[in-house]
Amino acid sequence: SAAEKGGYDAFMLKEIAEQPRAVADTLLGRIGADGRLHLDEMHITDEQLREIDKIIIIACGTSYHAGMIAKYAIEHWAGVPCEVEFASEFRYRDPILTKSTLVIAISQSGESMDTLMAVRHAREQKARVLCICNVNGSTMPRECDGVLYTHAGPEVGVAATKTFLTQLVAVYLIALYIAQVRGTKWGDEVFAMVQLLGSMPEKVEKVLETMEPVRELARSLADEKSVLFLGRHVGFPVALEGALKLKELAYMHAEGFAAGELKHGPIALIEDGLPVIVVVPPRARDVLHDKIVSNIQEIRARGARTIVIAEEGDDSVAPYADTLIEVPAVPTLLQPLVTTIPLQVFSCELATAKGHDVDQPRNLAKSVTVE
Ligand code: G6P
């Protein structure tokens, strides 16, 4: 009903708007007054955490994209080798798991059968299994050794929005917590990042306030056949997530690529007028940043219509952007918290312009409880 949607036309719109609050709720009570993290709910002692020699992340759909970002965060801050895999693939190969492997399942619902079966497989191999979950008391938290709840509140829209942003917060918390316990060379950076996480709800709010041009853009592209998404580093999973949202909601061909792979194939797809959305890393990451700027030039020279998501004040991309979408400046690893939002708004508005029900896309279920 309209009341349940809190005055919005769709649950998805409401859930996108709730993201500043949701992100704040994921952080709530987890950062001490001394700036140190407290994640006792993970049910893992400092000693056990120091013995971990490999982390494997398993998830599906949007949660898998959060897992890809987790890998960058965990390997950088915590210095522990980390793999990420689709839950549906995991147990059908022969994954190497020992007592010192930490498996982290990411699942909004806690009920996805693919992820649940992967959790059971990992537990049978004696690995320690944690989950990141949004639904209290669902199956995965009950079967895992520990759980970090995202506290995003119920999500009704089939396409994940606020639960994705809060999964990101949860993976940052875990990565920074492991770094804190193990005492890596990034001590000062870890401390600074924890402080910065506290300011993310404001940044998310700021992005939401500037979305009108993105909605206009989406409406203008409603008749396109295909949209490509490019990113590098953590911008790559963001590109994949942008493409997934557009497929799910607008039933449109959409593909995400690692920008560095462009020259190895995807550039052949570029033709006159093809919309390409590019996620640009912060200017501070000069090498990565400059490489993606040259990718933008290359595709534009071949006729692509470039839609560029970049940090505010990034003058170097403006000359090559047919549309420039600015987001607040944040460190590279945290950037998905701000760059994902325009992509959510874009797919939601485009699908609405096509007359689709964004809360109940055809053929999809909120939680897939069959393998
Ligand atoms: C379904 C939903 C997706 C979701 C995926 C994983 O496919 O339509 O939005 O990302 O399941 O769900 P989970 O609850 O495990 O995160």
From TrEMBL:
Keyword presence, Transferase: yes
Alphabetical UniProt keywords: Aminotransferase, Cytoplasm, Glutamine amidotransferase, Repeat, Transferase
GO process terms (BP): carbohydrate metabolic process; fructose 6-phosphate metabolic process; protein N-linked glycosylation; UDP-N-acetylglucosamine metabolic process
Cellular component terms per the entry's GO annotation: cytosol
Subcellular location(s) per record: Cytoplasm
Domain of life: Bacteria
Stretches of the chain forming a coiled coil according to its record: none
Major enzyme class: transferase
Protein name according to UniProt: Glutamine--fructose-6-phosphate aminotransferase [isomerizing]
Subunit structure, as described in the record: Homodimer.
EC number: 2.6.1.16
Domain SIS: 45-184, 217-361
Stated role: Catalyzes the first step in hexosamine metabolism, converting fructose-6P into glucosamine-6P using glutamine as a nitrogen source.
Active site per UniProt: K366 (for fru-6p isomerization activity)
One of the record's GO molecular function terms: glutamine-fructose-6-phosphate transaminase (isomerizing) activity
Catalytic function, reaction form: D-fructose 6-phosphate + L-glutamine = D-glucosamine 6-phosphate + L-glutamate
Principal location class: cytoplasm
Originating species: Actinocorallia herbida
